[in-house]
Design a protein that fits this description.
Elements lengths: L49 H13 L15 E2 L2 E2 H16 L3 H4 L3
Antiparallel strand pairs: 1-2
């Protein structure tokens, strides 16, 4: 039986670094890997504090001709490959099946 001088390497805990290709919400200082998915060249990730993103949306939307118009603005938000609206609707329908309450009651309408 020979000496195994590097066996101690397996005892070191290596922290996992999250990848945020599908997004994420960070509430504290966090190391992460960005732009790690194959489409990042054509569809780059945006990493910004929430208030900067909100201010940017407000500024862009207020500069368009429709800002004083009553036309609705359609915004599609994807989470991974799914539309956020569909995810919410699926969850509400599941809650309706489980609780028997209608969707309006579930969202406080």
């Amino acid at each position: 039986m020979g000496l195994k001088p590097f066996n101690w390497i397996n005892t070191i805990g290596v922290p996992q670094i999250p990848q945020l290709a599908k997004g994420g919400v960070l509430y504290e200082e966090t190391a992460f890997i960005g732009g790690e998915y194959s489409g990042a060249n054509n569809n780059p990730e945006i990493v910004t504090p929430q208030n900067i993103l909100k201010d940017t949306f407000d500024q862009v939307l207020s500069n368009h001709e429709w800002s004083n118009n009553s036309q609705p603005i359609n915004l599609i938000v994807n989470v991974g490959n799914q539309k956020l609206g569909q995810i919410l609707l699926d969850n509400l329908q599941d809650m309706k099946r489980r609780t028997g309450k209608d969707i309006e009651a579930l969202v406080g309408g």
